[in-house]
Amino acid sequence: MTDSMFYLFGALATGGALGVILNRNTVAAALCLLLSLLGIAGLFVLLDAYLLAVLLVLVYAGAVAALFVFVVMLLDMQGGTPRPSGKITLAASLCAFALLLAGLALTFAPGHLPEPPVAAVPAFGASLKLYAYRLFTAYLLPVQVAGFLLLTAMIGVIVISKKPKDDAASTEPSILPPST
Amino acid sequence: MLQHYLFLSALLFAIGFFGVLLRRNVIVILMSLELMLVAAMLGFVAFSRFNGTMDGNVFVFFILTVAAAEVAVGLAITVALFRHRRTVMVDELNALKN
Q1: Is the ipTM of this complex over 0.85?
Q2: pTM of the model
Q3: CATH topology assigned to domain A1-79
Q4: For chain A, which residues make up each domain, given as ranges?
Q5: Strand, helix or coil for residue B89
Q6: What are the pLDDT digits (tens) for A81-102?
Q7: Which of A75, A151, B55, B57 is the most buried (most CB within 10 A)?
Q8: With an 8 Å Cβ cutoff, are B73 and A153 in contact?
């Protein structure tokens, strides 16, 4: 049962990921990203990390994918003509493929990874209390740094996306229709 | 079963990496970056589950935070870029090249 669910969600995640990078249409790519994230959330549920699954759906599917769709709609881009890849890109792709093969061979080589029976290992991921305990004791400093990072990102986004007044008026038309 | 999860994680990371390498659209590149982050998260959660520890699960929180901040800043930069250059294709953004 668990195995078949793993294959189902894994296929969903992989298919969605392939859809992201193969689609010419950017909106369809964003929706494929959403599909892939749902598959990952299902995998998190299989791994007994229920809170993380809910957070993934809330943050990624709710905020990030919606933001992607919103920006695509705002920019109104047309898919450019696909160009042949350069030599460096091809070399990097080949290197990455070789690295992937090597990593997979190492992963699946017998004896490299212990294979504990799942039932014997206690599942901590479902316990909300443990998350809270960890976050407020051992990980207190990273939590504060993360909060500061979010604040910085928020201010940065506001500054970046503010429309420069003289520039936009003089040289190029704005992409937004003028507000009344 | 752990190896299955690790294989899936590596596969998703590789797909995201090829997306970053081969696509020209900045927004699709950002999506591929998100895929790579999610693949890393899957690896963390799988290791955490099969080792009976909590730390990988907690670390995913921070990856989520960084990913959310990254995508917000990245998309804001993309919008500003489109405002100035009228394109989001990376091979047309070569102002620093010469």
Answers
A1: yes
A2: 0.83
A3: Four Helix Bundle (Hemerythrin (Met), subunit A) (1.20.120)
A4: 1-79, 128-165
A5: strand
A6: 566 667 787 888 788 788 888 8
A7: B57
A8: yes
